[in-house]
Automatic annotation (TrEMBL):
NCBIfam families the UniProt entry points to: PRK10917.1-1, PRK10917.1-3, PRK10917.1-4, PRK10917.2-2, recG
Stretches of the chain forming a coiled coil according to its record: none
Domain Helicase C-terminal, residue spans: 486-632
Name of the molecule in the record: ATP-dependent DNA helicase RecG
CDD domains named in the record: DEXHc_RecG, RecG_wedge_OBF, SF2_C_RecG
The enzyme's E.C. designation: 5.6.2.4
Family: Belongs to the helicase family. RecG subfamily.
Amino acid sequence: MSRPNSTLDQVNVRELKGVGPKMADKLAGLGIHTVQDLLFHLPLRYQDRTRITPIGALQPGIDAVIEGEVRAADIAFGRRRSLVCRLQDHTGTVTLRFFHFSAAQKENLTNGVTLRCFGEARRGASGLEMYHPEYHAVDPLNPEPNEQSLTPIYPSSEGLSQQGWRKLALQALTMLQPNTLIEWLPQSFNIGDTLPISLEHALQYLHSPPIDAPVELLREGKHAYQQQLAFEELLAHNLSLLKLRNQTLKHGAPPIAKNSDLNQRFLHQLGFDFTRAQQRVAAEIDRDMSSAKPMLRLVQGDVGSGKTVVAALAALNAAASGYQVAIMAPTEILAEQHLANFTRWMTPLGLDIGWLSGKVKGKQRQQQLKAIAEHSVDIIVGTHALFQQEVVFARLGLAVIDEQHRFGVHQRLALKEKANQDIGQPHQLIMTATPIPRTLAMSAYADLDTSVIDELPPGRTPISTVVIDNNRRSQIIDRVRNACVEGRQTYWVCTLIEESDTLEAQAAEDTCEQLKLALPDIKVALIHGRMKPSEKESIMAAFKANQIDLLVATTVIEVGVDVPNASLMIIENAERLGLSQLHQLRGRVGRGPTASHCVLMYQAPLGKLGKQRLQIMRQSSDGFVIAEKDLELRGPGELLGTRQTGLMQLRIANLERDSHLLEAVNILARQMINDHPVAVNPLIQRWIADGEQYAQV
Ligand code: ADP
Ligand code: MG
């Protein structure tokens, strides 16, 4: 497809009337540089200003256009000073109220002037009132035509009014002629039963929908034109990830051979055999790493499925081949646990372990950085701190990233910077315990190959789960007492709605005090995210050593903590957590030979959806089943975690609403990147504001 030289992606916004250097800067801040960018800055919703509503027919809570004569305009001195204007037509009277107003404004509202207003009527002190309506004076002898299309509302941003946006969009629309935008999707391709829709037509319609447009459908984002654009947007995101992948694969990576002798010794030392699933995934990793292209592999596996030992084997092979390995975890507590495990496993095999987290400071930090740069450590365990600029690896050959959903594409890009030019890109192994349904995974992780550990190690007893009203707290406390007396350790998890460490810690402290009072013979301890790492560590160690019976915790214990003797878990206000998160938490029990139980407490009354969700936890212990159901009930936001969805800054598409498009998007993206690569960059740049970042990698 050749590119006509007048396409709107080549026309700078400065060519529009009213766009000077200052406005251009503002627009650039929103990633809008060209007229095409402006056209793809789409309305969020629409207002219907196509008819005038008689004042007598105004309804509270509904936006409306009215026209009437000013009957009075006075300053009212109530609780707050306001300008109050009575407006009348032949059907009734309404009050316009302004809390912010100028003297000139009051002067202009003289009796007898006719105003046309737009606003939402509300019940106020004097009957129906409109607060701060948009208005202007009109000449009753020379009536103004009504709006001929629905009024678009743009994602607002400081410094540009809705009217400003509308003016710009209208100018851009006049430039939107046939062939001024390139159709990058294949002609033969269309979604659903609809005929292919031209971009020109879709954009014209969405910036300025006709009077008879189905407002409801547009509001829901389900109009065929919106769906068409949503499809293209999802495609652009998918392509950006595929491109990232291809770019990474262009770089070389050090081929790493399996070291059978050390593998034998490692497995022997573990004292158990790998499950078939672990063997399969380990072989997939070996195959990837033996290649001179970087591995890009995501390993999904339920909590406790044994991902860490599989990663350890990969780390061992890389270190034994003379490369460094970075092991990154999303939280301090999980990183600490990895540190303990890797030290225990690898030191006897002659490898040196380094440690770097945000909390490693001063002289100790300098020492660690030096050791990393000089290759006197082989395996370096840590948190995000490992990505920082000051960290220079001597020979990074493999990066293991645990709990992928908390890391983002940007961090994966940062990893590139850690490569040693002489040896090439590090292999990447990404592990997640949040099972993600296939289609969603194909979109969110389009740049990765996937392996699944779909089998738990033998000897695990299933966890039985019950759902109980918070009111029956005393019964639950009895149950905890019995369990602890029998020598079975227990977790009590406190949750809060607000994302606040402090409040959550406070709630856990209160609960801990109550439980200590109720259970005087039981050893109760508290752990939460606000504690010092050393404190957390010593509490976890004491719990592990069975010196604590009941551990009251916040959701910090979510990932990774391994105490096989703990076989009872109480989760307060379970309805507040996502199912995948509940599943993660519940995975802390059921790790030993005794039958384990999980009590999900909820605050009554619980809605139908809430009940259904907790029932799923009762019925299934399979992370994938739970994730699929959760996706069905609540959409992908929760599954992917806020960071991940935040990364996919979508303009018009919505992963929840548009999940039915994903399969086709995935297929087409793969076709296009191979068969029609010229379309890739233009599509990415059309849809992704910082698209250059992908284009340049
Ligand atoms: P994940 O990281 O997938 O949650 P881990 O690797 O931490 O799981 O394993 C959970 C527990 O199961 C650990 O105590 C680990 O030593 C043990 N484990 C892992 N694989 C096996 C296996 N094949 N047989 C028995 N125990 C295993
Ligand atoms: Mg783990």
